[in-house]
Amino acid sequence: MSARVGGAARVGGPGRAGGAARVGGAARAALGGVLVAALAFGAACGVGDDEVRPGVGGPDQGAAAESADIVGAGIPEVEAVMPLPAGAVVSTDIPDNLPREDEENCDPLPSLRPDDAPPEERVPRILQRGRLIVGLDQGSNLFSFRDPASGQLTGFDVDLAREIAADIFGDPRQVEFRSLTSANRLEALENDQVDVVIRSMSITCARRERVTFSVPYYQAYQRVLTVRGSGITEIEHLEGKRVCVAAGTTSASRLWAELERITVLSVNTWADCLVAIQQNQVDAITTDDAILVGITAQDPYLQIVGPQLDAEPYGVGIAKSTPENNTDGLVRQVNSTLERIRADGTWNRMYSTWLSGLGPNPGMPEPRYIEEPR
């Protein structure tokens, strides 16, 4: 069963330190007054504590609908109502639109080999426009996020986009970034809204049916993230638990394949997953280790656990070539940039800057190219 959640959900379980969340001193009293006033307002409007909200349900409210106590100073305990992220979907059955796993005999990694043509021949439309349009995330720490001090987009994927723009225009600033969710990145390419998607997107055969890819620029591995002391140390411990994933990713496929009972909260961004686990709406998050490292950097009470699961090779997504929009030149252009940053050490510098928290530099994945007639 899947339910799209548009209202709020009561969230249960202990606070971050293992007990009920407590607020001290004057702030505690002030918070108590606000909560009491809110409850009184709700009662006056006919909104009772047992009201069934769309997608949450009545007595059996599922993953994100238990109660969390907030204790005030000299006031009765009350239940805080925690909203789920906008557009969140709670599923206890396998969704019909779940990204499927690739067939064993499928090899999605080979791409078009770079040639010696200049950008004027490879990407004339982009050159004429004067900028490269890149779809990415704005809330994926380490890969693409807004620097809190400058407000500028920064991260590993942002640096890669600028390297591609530099090879086309001679200027890394000639790039326009457009924010995409995991669920709409393929559609953005198909509808010609962006030239490329650089959004920690795994190369799969299922996705290749809709778009094409560069050679891999990074190899990630699916892992599990949870709260320290939760007792969860491997994927089997997620049986019967609540797990957050980003909609449109392959992260949930392994869960449904391995576990019989699981509640999955699908959200728009990984930042939404961070909020969900901090509010005890889920027990764990699963996705690529590179993304999880960025999440743990924002909360010291979280940790990555268990062995590496599926390999997730990241590629630059590009629209499929058509008679109206031949993108083969763009694929070769991107692959030539990837060849350059491997050879001149730029990729190693990018790894040191953004991803060194993952451990020693594994090196850029070796490219494999499609065999073409000479």
From TrEMBL:
One of its GO terms (biological process) is amino acid transport. Residues 93-120 are annotated as: Disordered. PROSITE patterns: SBP_BACTERIAL_3. Pfam families: SBP_bac_3 (PF00497). One of its GO terms (cellular component) is outer membrane-bounded periplasmic space. InterPro entries: Bact_solute-bind_prot3 (IPR051455), SBP_3_CS (IPR018313), Solute-binding_3/MltF_N (IPR001638). Gene3D superfamilies: Periplasmic binding protein-like II. Keywords: Signal, Transport. Residues 131-358 form the Solute-binding protein family 3/N-terminal domain. Belongs to the bacterial solute-binding protein 3 family. This is Glutamate ABC transporter substrate-binding protein.
